[in-house]
């Protein structure tokens, strides 16, 4: 399966935001402040996945993503995160992309803001698509030009064309 085959315009968000920020200097943000910021982004991720029409229980899906992020951040650095869950809350494989042009806090391992979210959700019994697409994303993020190309797209269709150009 090709990455571009499972990416649909309705599962692309070019405006991921941090949400309301704490009213104090960044250096004074507490762990709780930062977690609330990250949770705001996770809520947008779940809303994006919900657009696929494959979500059974959105509240449980949100909890699954939150619990996944509590175990270990999926922000791999260089402005990229790959939030992913295998859950019974989706009826099939879902691939989505979220873009934040200004960058958001997502507990990245390098401490940098996150700009690109490659999002995967799959039922636990659907290993083949999930693992194949995860591998393709891993290949995609190694290309240094992809970040600039994705963060400067103006429409979901243009973003999908960029993904295709890098993968096919």
Name some characteristics of this structure.
168 residues; 6 strands; Mannitol-specific EII, Chain A
SSE inventory with pairings:
Elements (H helix, E strand, L loop, with lengths): L2 H4 E7 L17 H20 L7 H14 L3 E3 L2 E2 L2 E3 L7 E11 L9 E9 L4 H15 L3 H7 L4 H12 L1
Helix pairs in contact: 2-3
Describe the structure.
The chain has 6 helices and 6 strands. The termini are close together. A hairpin with a 2-residue loop joins strand 2 and strand 3. The mean pLDDT is 91. The chain has one domain: Mannitol-specific EII, Chain A. The chain is of the alpha/beta class and 168 residues long. It is globular and about 45 Å long.
**Reported CATH architecture:** 3-Layer(aba) Sandwich
Question: What's the main sheet like?
Answer: 6 strands, mixed
Radius of gyration, CA atoms, in whole angstroms: 15 Å
Total count of domains: 1
Unreliable stretches: none
In short:
The chain has 168 residues and is α/β, with parallel strands linked by helices. It has six helices and six strands.
């Amino acid at each position: 399966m090709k990455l571009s085959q499972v990416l649909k315009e309705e599962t692309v968000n070019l405006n991921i935001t941090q949400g309301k920020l704490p009213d104090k200097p960044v250096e004074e943000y507490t762990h709780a402040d930062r977690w609330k910021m990250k949770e705001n982004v996770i809520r947008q991720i779940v809303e994006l996945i919900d657009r696929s029409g494959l979500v059974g229980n959105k509240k449980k899906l949100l909890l699954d993503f939150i619990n996944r992020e509590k175990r270990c951040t999926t922000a791999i650095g260089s402005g990229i995160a790959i939030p992913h869950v295998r859950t019974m809350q989706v009826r099939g494989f879902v691939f989505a992309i979220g873009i934040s042009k200004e960058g958001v806090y997502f507990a990245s391992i390098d401490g940098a803001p996150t700009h690109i979210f490659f999002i995967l959700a799959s039922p636990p019994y659907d290993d083949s698509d999930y693992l194949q697409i995860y591998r393709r994303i891993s290949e995609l993020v190694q290309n240094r030009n992809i970040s600039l190309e994705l963060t400067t797209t103006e429409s979901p269709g243009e973003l999908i064309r960029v993904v295709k150009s890098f993968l096919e």
